[in-house]
What we know:
Blueprint lengths: L20 H12 L26 H23 L2 H10 L1 H5 L2 H8 L16 H9 L4 H13 L20 H13 L3 H11 L1 H4 L3
Amino acid sequence: MTLDLLNPTWRKSSRAALSLLALMGGLIGASLVGCDDGSSGTDGGSAGTESGAGGSGGGAAGAVADCEAELDRLVNNCVTAGSDSRACFYEEYKAFCTSGEPEAITESVKCFPDNCWTFADANTAYDCLTASYSAHPKEKATAVINAICAKCPGETVCNGEYTGLPPEHLPDDLLDTILACVDAAADCQTARGCSEDNVPDLVACF
Protein backbone atom coordinates (compact mmCIF):
# COMPACT_ATOMS: atom_id res chain seq x y z
CA MET A 1 0.00 0.00 0.00
CA THR A 2 1.32 3.44 -0.90
CA LEU A 3 0.48 5.97 1.77
CA ASP A 4 0.33 9.72 1.31
CA LEU A 5 2.19 10.78 4.43
CA LEU A 6 1.47 14.46 3.96
CA ASN A 7 -2.25 14.28 3.35
CA PRO A 8 -4.31 15.66 6.26
CA THR A 9 -7.67 14.04 6.89
CA TRP A 10 -9.05 16.63 9.27
CA ARG A 11 -7.51 19.87 10.38
CA LYS A 12 -7.34 22.05 13.43
CA SER A 13 -4.77 24.72 14.23
CA SER A 14 -2.26 23.99 16.98
CA ARG A 15 1.46 23.88 17.38
CA ALA A 16 3.17 21.77 14.73
CA ALA A 17 5.26 19.72 17.12
CA LEU A 18 2.21 17.92 18.51
CA SER A 19 1.88 15.40 15.71
CA LEU A 20 3.78 13.69 12.96
CA LEU A 21 1.34 14.64 10.21
CA ALA A 22 4.22 15.31 7.90
CA LEU A 23 5.50 11.81 8.45
CA MET A 24 2.63 9.75 9.79
CA GLY A 25 -0.56 11.51 8.78
CA GLY A 26 -1.12 9.30 5.79
CA LEU A 27 -0.40 6.15 7.76
CA ILE A 28 -3.12 6.93 10.26
CA GLY A 29 -5.21 9.21 8.09
CA ALA A 30 -5.45 7.61 4.66
CA SER A 31 -5.53 4.10 6.09
CA LEU A 32 -7.78 4.60 9.09
CA VAL A 33 -10.07 7.54 8.43
CA GLY A 34 -12.91 6.39 6.28
CA CYS A 35 -12.75 2.78 7.46
CA ASP A 36 -16.25 1.54 8.13
CA ASP A 37 -15.76 0.81 11.81
CA GLY A 38 -19.15 1.91 13.02
CA SER A 39 -17.67 4.59 15.24
CA SER A 40 -16.52 7.40 12.93
CA GLY A 41 -18.10 10.82 12.85
CA THR A 42 -18.83 13.38 15.48
CA ASP A 43 -21.58 11.34 17.06
CA GLY A 44 -19.92 7.92 16.88
CA GLY A 45 -19.05 7.64 20.56
CA SER A 46 -18.04 9.85 23.41
CA ALA A 47 -14.76 11.58 24.03
CA GLY A 48 -12.75 10.88 27.12
CA THR A 49 -11.45 13.36 29.62
CA GLU A 50 -8.08 13.66 31.22
CA SER A 51 -7.66 11.04 33.89
CA GLY A 52 -5.59 10.96 37.04
CA ALA A 53 -2.56 8.74 37.42
CA GLY A 54 -4.05 5.85 39.38
CA GLY A 55 -3.76 2.64 37.40
CA SER A 56 -1.97 -0.46 38.51
CA GLY A 57 0.94 1.37 40.14
CA GLY A 58 4.37 -0.20 40.31
CA GLY A 59 6.41 2.53 38.66
CA ALA A 60 7.68 1.78 35.14
CA ALA A 61 6.21 -1.73 35.10
CA GLY A 62 2.86 -0.35 36.20
CA ALA A 63 2.94 2.31 33.48
CA VAL A 64 3.58 -0.35 30.83
CA ALA A 65 0.78 -2.55 32.19
CA ASP A 66 -1.66 0.38 32.19
CA CYS A 67 -0.69 1.27 28.64
CA GLU A 68 -1.15 -2.28 27.37
CA ALA A 69 -4.50 -2.59 29.14
CA GLU A 70 -5.79 0.61 27.53
CA LEU A 71 -4.69 -0.56 24.08
CA ASP A 72 -6.26 -3.98 24.66
CA ARG A 73 -9.50 -2.14 25.41
CA LEU A 74 -9.27 -0.32 22.08
CA VAL A 75 -8.46 -3.55 20.26
CA ASN A 76 -11.68 -5.01 21.68
CA ASN A 77 -13.63 -1.87 20.75
CA CYS A 78 -12.40 -2.13 17.18
CA VAL A 79 -13.10 -5.85 16.92
CA THR A 80 -16.64 -5.15 18.12
CA ALA A 81 -16.93 -2.34 15.58
CA GLY A 82 -15.78 -4.68 12.80
CA SER A 83 -12.56 -2.84 11.98
CA ASP A 84 -9.82 -5.45 11.71
CA SER A 85 -7.27 -2.92 10.45
CA ARG A 86 -7.72 -0.65 13.46
CA ALA A 87 -7.67 -3.60 15.85
CA CYS A 88 -4.41 -4.71 14.24
CA PHE A 89 -3.02 -1.18 14.51
CA TYR A 90 -3.71 -0.92 18.23
CA GLU A 91 -2.39 -4.43 18.82
CA GLU A 92 0.90 -3.53 17.14
CA TYR A 93 0.95 -0.14 18.87
CA LYS A 94 1.36 -1.94 22.19
CA ALA A 95 5.06 -2.35 21.37
CA PHE A 96 5.45 1.36 22.10
CA CYS A 97 4.20 0.76 25.66
CA THR A 98 7.56 -0.89 26.31
CA SER A 99 9.88 0.93 23.94
CA GLY A 100 8.20 4.35 23.86
CA GLU A 101 6.31 6.55 26.28
CA PRO A 102 3.65 4.45 28.07
CA GLU A 103 2.22 7.22 30.24
CA ALA A 104 1.77 9.51 27.24
CA ILE A 105 0.08 6.73 25.26
CA THR A 106 -2.24 5.84 28.14
CA GLU A 107 -3.33 9.43 28.62
CA SER A 108 -4.02 9.85 24.91
CA VAL A 109 -6.00 6.67 24.32
CA LYS A 110 -8.19 7.33 27.36
CA CYS A 111 -9.65 10.03 25.14
CA PHE A 112 -11.36 7.14 23.26
CA PRO A 113 -13.33 5.44 26.05
CA ASP A 114 -16.07 3.62 24.16
CA ASN A 115 -15.25 3.80 20.46
CA CYS A 116 -12.73 2.79 17.81
CA TRP A 117 -11.46 6.24 16.96
CA THR A 118 -7.83 6.98 16.15
CA PHE A 119 -5.43 9.88 16.45
CA ALA A 120 -6.42 10.95 12.93
CA ASP A 121 -10.19 10.86 13.40
CA ALA A 122 -10.51 11.92 17.01
CA ASN A 123 -13.78 13.73 16.36
CA THR A 124 -14.99 15.24 19.66
CA ALA A 125 -11.89 13.94 21.48
CA TYR A 126 -9.62 16.45 19.74
CA ASP A 127 -9.23 18.77 22.73
CA CYS A 128 -8.58 15.83 25.03
CA LEU A 129 -5.83 14.59 22.71
CA THR A 130 -4.28 18.03 22.40
CA ALA A 131 -4.07 18.27 26.19
CA SER A 132 -2.43 14.85 26.40
CA TYR A 133 0.19 15.77 23.81
CA SER A 134 0.95 19.07 25.52
CA ALA A 135 1.51 17.25 28.80
CA HIS A 136 4.25 15.07 27.27
CA PRO A 137 6.51 17.22 25.03
CA LYS A 138 9.60 15.70 23.43
CA GLU A 139 12.49 17.66 21.96
CA LYS A 140 13.21 14.92 19.42
CA ALA A 141 9.62 15.02 18.20
CA THR A 142 9.98 18.73 17.57
CA ALA A 143 13.26 18.10 15.75
CA VAL A 144 11.56 15.65 13.39
CA ILE A 145 8.81 18.14 12.59
CA ASN A 146 11.40 20.85 11.93
CA ALA A 147 13.34 18.51 9.65
CA ILE A 148 10.33 17.55 7.53
CA CYS A 149 9.32 21.20 7.23
CA ALA A 150 12.80 22.03 5.97
CA LYS A 151 12.28 19.49 3.14
CA CYS A 152 8.55 20.13 2.63
CA PRO A 153 7.97 23.73 3.74
CA GLY A 154 4.56 24.06 2.14
CA GLU A 155 2.94 21.24 4.06
CA THR A 156 0.10 21.94 6.46
CA VAL A 157 1.99 20.59 9.48
CA CYS A 158 4.41 23.49 9.09
CA ASN A 159 1.49 25.87 9.62
CA GLY A 160 0.28 24.07 12.72
CA GLU A 161 -2.46 22.02 11.01
CA TYR A 162 -2.01 18.35 11.64
CA THR A 163 -3.32 14.88 12.18
CA GLY A 164 -1.40 11.69 12.58
CA LEU A 165 0.68 9.57 14.90
CA PRO A 166 1.85 11.55 17.95
CA PRO A 167 5.65 11.69 18.11
CA GLU A 168 5.37 12.10 21.90
CA HIS A 169 4.50 8.40 22.01
CA LEU A 170 7.50 7.16 20.07
CA PRO A 171 10.84 5.86 21.39
CA ASP A 172 13.89 8.07 21.04
CA ASP A 173 15.73 5.61 18.82
CA LEU A 174 12.86 5.53 16.33
CA LEU A 175 12.68 9.32 16.27
CA ASP A 176 16.47 9.41 15.76
CA THR A 177 16.16 7.00 12.83
CA ILE A 178 13.36 8.96 11.21
CA LEU A 179 15.22 12.22 11.73
CA ALA A 180 18.40 10.87 10.15
CA CYS A 181 16.40 9.58 7.18
CA VAL A 182 14.65 12.92 6.67
CA ASP A 183 17.91 14.85 7.00
CA ALA A 184 19.52 12.61 4.38
CA ALA A 185 16.56 12.76 1.97
CA ALA A 186 17.32 14.53 -1.28
CA ASP A 187 13.81 15.94 -1.59
CA CYS A 188 10.37 16.08 -0.05
CA GLN A 189 9.10 12.98 -1.82
CA THR A 190 11.97 10.89 -0.45
CA ALA A 191 11.45 12.29 3.03
CA ARG A 192 7.84 11.14 2.92
CA GLY A 193 8.89 7.51 3.03
CA CYS A 194 11.07 7.80 6.11
CA SER A 195 8.48 6.96 8.76
CA GLU A 196 6.63 4.39 6.68
CA ASP A 197 9.85 2.45 6.15
CA ASN A 198 10.51 2.36 9.88
CA VAL A 199 7.11 1.18 11.18
CA PRO A 200 6.53 -1.91 9.01
CA ASP A 201 4.34 -3.69 11.57
CA LEU A 202 1.89 -0.78 11.62
CA VAL A 203 1.92 -0.44 7.83
CA ALA A 204 1.24 -4.16 7.46
CA CYS A 205 -2.12 -3.74 9.21
CA PHE A 206 -3.44 -1.97 6.12
